[in-house]
Design brief:
Blueprint lengths: L8 E4 L2 E4 L4 E3 L7 E3 L14 E4 L1 H11 L7 E4 L5 E4 L2 E7 L7 E7 L2 E5 L21 E6 L11 H14 L5 E4 L5 H11 L6 E3 L1 H12 L7 E3 L16 E4 L16 E5 L6 H6 L4 E3 L7 H11 L3 E7 L1 H10 L3 E4 L24
Parallel strand pairs: 3-4, 4-5, 5-6, 10-11, 11-18, 12-15, 12-16, 13-14, 13-15, 16-17, 18-19
Antiparallel strand pairs: 1-2, 2-3, 7-8, 8-9, 9-10
Amino acid sequence: MPPHPETWMKVTPLGLYCEPGGFHVDPTRAVDRAVISHGHADHARPGHAAVLATPETLAIMRARFGEDRAGDTQQPLRYGESVTINGVRLTLHPAGHVLGSAQVALEWQGSRIVVSGDYKRRRDPTCAGFVPVECDVFVTEATFALPVFRHPPDSHEIRRLLDSVALFPERAHVVGAYALGKTQRIIALLREAGWDRPIHLHGAVEKLCTLYESLGVPLGALLPVPKGLKRGHPPILAGEIVIAPPSAEATPWARRLADPVTCAASGWMTVRQRAKLRAVELPLIISDHADWDELLQTIDDVRAPEVWVTHGRDDALVHALSLKGIRGRALHLVGREDEEDEGAPEALGEETTP
């Protein structure tokens, strides 16, 4: 009889640890051997001795941390390829979250665990789509695990943005979006919707856009927001779309722009009070995480009799699992819910649980 996953996948202060394999998955601090699901800061940390991840995630880590901090040794593993580590078969599958994001499938003595990392089920022109993998235990996030979170189609939200640009041609539209994943996705969605004019970028999001293009994701014409304007210079970029970190809209940086319309692209914009508190004039419900229905659909798809919940609204999801006859377990991992979608993370690119 295969061993129960709890006997070989341990919850530690550093995160999930595969005991027979001798490695952590998305550890919260530097370790000897780490498998990284994707490049966001609450999953990818600097200073590991050895790192295994997709080639794209390794490139993102090098861009963010520097060559000398992205792992002393770096082992790329493409989607669908497998490697065996101390008897544990490890395979990476697309998670659909951001470029290079992966689910980590681990098999040992006939037992299979899939650690999803963060994921979404919507089509994203900038990354590979989520692939369900049947398993004995599925480790899921629960960022938007409440029935109130049912995200509208991305095309609907992009159309709202373009309609506002057409309605207010004398104003700049500043979209607050995370540097990694969300910025590039919004750009790609705008291109698909027919916006072929240059999109202007805050300096904090330029570097990763350049990286995405170097990794084969076309983004079209991108321009930096002009710098060095003298005092008294007329407001700039009327009728244009600007993408910036979420907090930039409230800084002196935004004063050079023509009567900016403050936009924010996040699943949290479902909560009207949250948009109001942030003085968001045009909330755009565009998320890089699965909503409530997509979480439940994913759990049906992977057919796991047991689901572990790593962070987010675990109580609601665990209850919903019990109604399906599935054992739910809230892991309460440290380091998965310390950063909000405001403040520090905005330059790093995550949309995390508040």
